[in-house]
Amino acid sequence: MIFDIHAHVGHSKYSDNLITAEAVLKVMDSSGIDRAILLPTASTGRYITAQQMKAEVDKAPGRLVGFFSSDVKAKDAVDLFTEAVTKYGAKGIKIHPVYAACAADDEKWVYPLLERAGELKVPVMFHSGEAPYATPWQIGLAAMDFPNTTVILEHMGFDAMCFTDAAIKMAKRSENIILGTTGVMYEFPITKAVNAIGDDRIVYGGEMPMNNPLHEILKVKVAKISDEAKEKILGRNIARILNITI
Description:
This protein is an alpha/beta fold.
């Protein structure tokens, strides 16, 4: 069973058309992916609403799970997030510090969302990989300040090896950090992460539908880890984190 943590719907500068659940499902079907988290795109600054996300999830509710995203600097961001979870069934929030032009450990704009996520008992997913807003150190500090909030440090620092090493170090220091594999360079950082923190806090993602997820899946499959660890990373871990029966 493969449960992908990183699929997009909405307006993207990397797509000529509005990305819909149908586009994601098509990639899932061709790649053997059973379930996926839908994330509102952030690259244009036009976030789909929680109600619109629910409509996308409802196209295949047995396969799709929705997260919420919005402008973190909006005065009603916390209220919109709360409504997304309590009224529209969002299972978490995605924060993209780069497109928000806001540091991941910003106390004014980001910390209230982290606090509310802890109260709602849903995870916060952070894009990571670029300075000056989205370094693993900043995300690690934010996670340490909110130990009761589950923080998904997605991309494990992306394609900079020094950032990937930092992501693993932050996860060693803060047990509420989950490492996401989407876009990580090579397969050996996945092996290193398992050796450092175990196989319960690492989750796979494919960046659908813009990216072909098959090579992202392959990174997990060829990593020098146990078959059980691969099964956990490819789906069982995120199902447990979201409290979804598979």
